[in-house]
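Q: What would this chain look like folded?
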Amino acid sequence: MLPGLGYLPIRTGPAIWRDFDAAEIQDDLAQIAALGFQAVRIPLFWADFQPTADRINPRALDHFGQFLRLAEDNGLQVTAGLWAGMWDGALWWPDWGVKPAPLSPNWPLIVNEQWVRWGRIRHPFSDERMLAARDLLIRELVAYYGQHPALLGWEPLPGFGRLAAAAPRAAVLDWVGDTLEKLDAAAPGHSATFLLALDALETPTAIWPCDIIAAGGQPSLSIATFASDRRRLPLNPRWIAFALDLVSTLARRPISLHLAGLPTTPPGEPSASRDGVFYANEEVAAEHLAEVIAIARERDCPELWLWRWADIPENRWHAPPYDHPNWRRHTGILRPDGGEKKLAGALRDGGAQADYPRLEFDPDEYRADPRAHFQRLWNEYQRVA
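A: My prediction, written as structure tokens:
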């Protein structure tokens, strides 16, 4: 199982491509490799790489090349999030991809480092401007760096599952197939991972894992450890085991797991619930992470990705999406001062055991009535587990 980590530098944060600091990144990547990670996941924020729909920023391209070289020097592989996309619970979008509309967006939207309160995104799956911009970045970035030895693969449109749920199924499937065909033509041989949200798999119009596989992509489950069991029972490892079994059965193969955050309280403080989110103290968080790692290993996950490298330092709390007290600030395996949380110990501990029953069901029957089957299966799984 390949262990990976979502990465943004502590100091530079989302400004990584604009304020590229090779020394900071080198220090981070060396420490990430020393912790036992083999790969990093990095967002290529769309606005940074394409300041306009028809122009590529050569400086950002060069910075990505430097990042790949630093990763290679430290023995790490890189999954690059193309057209990012959702990151830290918000949608980072280029200004040329938003049109005025009297409807608020369906998700937290950031444009030019500011929240957008009024407007609608040009949808990446069908809008002609967005499709042309996608193709340009494939020709300029993917084709140029596609054979770099540090490149593990692509993550087209981070936040794919959430964006796909708001678009017609046929348009999404057309986009997936077309995107994968163009990625492979530009840089053959690399995987393309699409993150699926569990709640989207409760609807009959879902993009199913088998749809992604049939198109040539790799589905992965994105799940929030801090909101286990739909926020009724936080840090519930049964929920993780159930979710993995559900999605891998629908895929008819083991799938990778992306953990969308495990916020912690400051050292020495007890666990607490605030605004529907559970903040674990470091000891509790480490125990839970060790068990989740064991579940992923026991279920043959090809890859396991933790959310982020470091907490957000206070001097960045003024900027979206960290400008309101919330979980986004506190999901790193490092504290803001660079000290390791006890989560790092869980990465080194191979002693945790997973002992949860396997979920069994017929995928075809499930897809016929997912909402009813999902709840029934979860109820049955809780009784058995």
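The mean pLDDT is 91.
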